[in-house]
Specification:
Length: about 260
């Protein structure tokens, strides 16, 4: 019961990590004109709630502009690069248990071995994950989550959604996120409250700070940019790096290789 309560508290804190997570992707978006109510132009079925999504996006963007980004900018100013990288590596290492669990659920034995190896190397030889020694041993990260697991077994993503505070999502993505947070084993289970909240807050600021340098690549309509970045990123992960043609993108240079 205590572990379940701890997972629920951790999941609540995790929701804030998704605010504009994809605002730093290095992609180009095309400006989309929202159709008027009497327009004969059909609504794209992948984003049937665009009017609502845009309003929620404006709300999330305001929170980021007036609170999250200034804090992240201050963090970048006072934190040495080596410390910043160590913090990022530490939190990335905690996701390896999730990667391992979902690799097994997707019958990806090699990916499961890589995740286990990365967690062991980085925890033991990387001082708790502060140093990413596994990559130096030619064990690059293979991110896997339960949303990818659902996609692997044929469940469709559903319509695009922009959720308050949680940011861009789809029904499959939200279901996967909840399952990862509540049911699958996680290294976060070993962290007691209130330390969990302190670490989650640091993770949020660190992740947002890492995206600041890439903001210069944002162009066009910001809502479309975030939507395209999210959908292509999820497709990239679910298909293990094989991206199909994005239904929202009109040009061929819209790539997520560096995202």
């Amino acid at each position: 019961m205590k572990n379940l309560l701890s997972r629920r508290r951790s999941m609540l804190a995790t929701s804030f990590l998704l605010v504009l997570t994809f605002a730093g992707a290095q992609v180009h978006a095309q400006t989309v004109q929202e159709p008027s109510p009497d327009s004969s132009t059909p609504v794209n079925t992948s984003d049937p709630y665009e009017s609502w999504n845009r309003r929620v996006f404006s709300f999330n963007d305001a929170i980021d502009r007036w609170f999250l980004r200034p804090v992240a900018q201050a963090y970048r100013t006072v934190t040495p690069d080596i410390v910043d990288r160590g913090v990022t590596n530490f939190f990335n290492n905690l996701t390896e248990i999730r990667n391992f669990s979902n690799s097994l659920l997707q019958l990806k034995g090699e990916s499961a071995v890589v995740a286990a190896g990365r967690f062991t190397y980085n925890t033991v030889f990387g001082l708790g994950g502060i140093f990413d020694v596994a990559t130096a041993f030619e064990l690059p990260e293979r991110p896997e989550d339960f949303g990818q697991t659902l996609g692997y077994w044929g469940l469709g993503s559903g319509p695009y959604l922009m959720l308050p505070l949680l940011g861009p999502a789809t029904p499959r993505y939200v279901t996967g996120m909840a399952t990862d947070g509540f049911l699958l084993p996680s290294a976060w289970d070993e962290v007691d409250s209130p330390e969990t909240y302190y670490l989650r807050g640091l993770q949020l600021v660190d992740r947002r700070a890492d995206f600041i340098p890439a903001e210069q690549f944002i162009s066009g309509d910001r809502y479309t940019f975030v939507r395209n970045a999210f959908l292509q990123r999820r497709e990239f992960l679910i298909n293990d790096g094989k991206i199909m043609k994005d239904p929202f993108a009109d040009d061929d240079d819209f790539m997520l290789d560096d995202f």
